[in-house]
Write a structure and sequence with these properties.
The chain is α/β, with parallel strands linked by helices and about 425 residues long. It folds into two domains: about 5-275, Spore Coat Polysaccharide Biosynthesis Protein SpsA, Chain A, CATH 3.90.550.10; about 305-405, Hexapeptide repeat proteins (UDP N-Acetylglucosamine Acyltransferase, domain 1), CATH 2.160.10. It is about 20% helix and about 30% strand. The chain is built from nine helices and 31 strands. The strands form seven sheets. Strands 1, 4, 5, 6, 8, 9, 10, 11 and 12 form a nine-stranded mixed beta sheet that branches. The termini are far apart. It is an enzyme of class 2 (transferase). This is Glucose-1-phosphate adenylyltransferase. Keywords: ATP-binding, Carbohydrate metabolism, Glycogen biosynthesis, Glycogen metabolism, Nucleotide-binding, Nucleotidyltransferase, Transferase. GO terms for molecular function: ATP binding; glucose-1-phosphate adenylyltransferase activity. Its EC number is 2.7.7.27.
Amino acid sequence: MQLKVLAFVLAGGEGKRLYPLTHDRAKPAVPFGGKYRIVDFVLSNLVNSGIYSIYVLTQFRSQSLQQHLADGWQFGGILKNEFLIPVPAQMRAEGKEWYRGTADAMHQNLNLIEQSAPDIVVVFGADHIYRMNIREMIEYHQRKQADVTIAALPTDKKFAKDFGVIEADQSGRIIGFHEKNADAPTIPGDPNRVYASMGNYVFSTDRLLKMIEEDHEDPTSTLDFGKDILPKAIGQAEMFAYNFNRNKIPGEEPDKIPYWRDVGTLDAFYDANMDIRAISPELNLFNREWPLRTASYPDPPAKFVFDDENRRGQAIDSVVSGGCIISGGLVRDSVLGRHVFVHAGCQIEGCVIFDNCDIGRHSKLRRCILQKNVRIPDGSVIGYDHEEDRKHYHVSDSGIVVVEGSRTPIPISTITV
């Protein structure tokens, strides 16, 4: 069956809990895994699934995100049905307001749906680190003849208080929603787990338009899919939960459970970065059948120099991106972005370092996140004395030290006068 599919990526997240990483950028634009941004995961999932008509809805501090999309995600041209277009809040509604919720973001862009008349609309968030074959979810949606299908993550019951929980019957039909309820119903046949909503949806177009319009006319609505539109649709629309654990990614082991992480806090963000540098990582960045796409830059290869007894450039159990120079220093259990310079005598352990950082000689860093363009003076010690660290840096509850850098300069053109 040929289906016209239109995708909306909700990428306006402010990311307050990720501060200070979101001081100058929206959450989807936060760097991850050395050379990527968080938004690259949902966009790669869509493109790898054969979905090429994509609108990215932006809002808070969107410049960094817009620049990244321009650098890495401009595909289109000859084939007009293949595009990725950023869409800022256009204030098309009567009140001329910013997006007030996920449903309002869609309501303000109903014209984009009406103009393309798709069979299916997929609405996905841009805030999570995960791999997903969205084509399988759409196939499930069609088999069930559903109006709405929600991606559901089987989660230990003890975490029910932290999520919006989907209540479903044996067939997968949704019969209830429970917002952060410790006593939420478990998965049929699995008394130890609940279905946590992933905030990823597949809609039949006619039903989506009807639901959004009806919700917009409700003065009591908070204009949110999870809190308003979907709970009100129970009994009125055919709604099904799609078990994310059954999703199969080409190139992965058949019995491998799909990877998904909510990186909403500094600690969760740090842990997800640590996942990828493991010897056998749960998130496989080396799967050529399901590539993680991003902006491509003309970076030189990473380089490791010096092999003296007390001056040896080496990286162990780490991810090192292009343009890095490890000059007689030791990097262990860390993730390095592009063009990081580690000078002689440095010891870097369990760190996440963004692009263009320079680590001075004989410095010691442990469990740090370095933002872009940080310059660490020679002999610095960070991450070993949290009382001292708090005088200069942001320190999370678990002791992760965030060092802020300077803004990246943007070259502009010149004229001769």
